[in-house]
Amino acid sequence: MKDILIAITGAVLDFDLARNMARIIAQQENGETDCLAWSDARQGRQSPGSVQCEIKGRPGWEVYGESHGGRLKISFNAGEYVFIHS
Questions:
Q1: Domains in the chain: how many in total?
Q2: Can you give the CATH number for the domain in which 44 is found?
Q3: 15-69 pLDDT per residue, tens
Q4: Which residues 6+ apart lie within 8 Å of 3 measured at CB?
Q5: What is the percent of the chain where pLDDT is above 90?
Q6: 73: how many CB neighbours lie within 10 A of its CB?
Q7: Mean pLDDT over all residues of the chain?
Q8: What's the pLDDT tens digit per position in 48-58?
C-alpha cells in the first residue's frame, strides 16, 4: 500500500475537509476509487467500527482496509485523520 503523508498548518482541518481532500488525491492517483476504511483520531472514531482488534500492532480498521483492496493510505497531520482508498 502506498502511503501519502500530508501536514496542514495555518488552517483548521476537520474530518469533512480531510475526507474530501483524500478523495481528490485518491482519484488523482487511482482514477475511480472508494474509501474502504478511515480513522478520526480527534473524535476517537474509525470505520469499520466493528473491527476493534489490533493485528501485529496495526489497528483492525487499517488491516481491514488493506485486506479489502486498499492501495492508498492518506494520512493528515501525523495520523489525526487517515483514509484508505482502493
A1: 1
A2: 3.30.1490.340
A3: 999 999 999 999 998 888 999 999 999 999 999 976 566 677 788 899 999 999 9
A4: 73, 75
A5: 77
A6: 20
A7: 92
A8: 976 566 677 78
Q: Domain range holding 49?
A: 2-85
| Longest alpha-carbon distance in the chain | 35
**46 phi and psi angles, rounded to 5 deg:** -155, 165
Which amino acid type is present at position 81? Answer: Y
Residue 41, H or E segment: none
Query: 84 forms bridges with which residues in the sheet?
Result: 37, 73
Cα–Cα distance, 76 to 86 (Å, whole number):
18
Q: How far is CA 18 from the centre of its chain?
A: 9
Measured between its terminal Cα atoms, the distance across the chain in Å is 10
Rounded to 5 degrees, φ, ψ at 73 are -115, 115
